[in-house]
Amino acid sequence: xxxxxxxxxxxxxxxxxxxxxxxxxxxxxxxxxxxxxxxxxxxxxxxxxxxxxxxxxx
Length: 58
Fold this sequence. Notes:
Layout: H1 2-18, H2 29-45
Helix pairs in contact: 1-2
């Protein structure tokens, strides 16, 4: 789920940069890209995967 959120944030950053949309200082394409990288790092580290610390049940 976090991987999809990261992809959406990267796409928004691309649109802001490609369309040269004037935004305020908070939502620049670089800031949105950094938020996307943070979400991607959380996804890769295993946050939000749904797997608990319990093992498999047999």
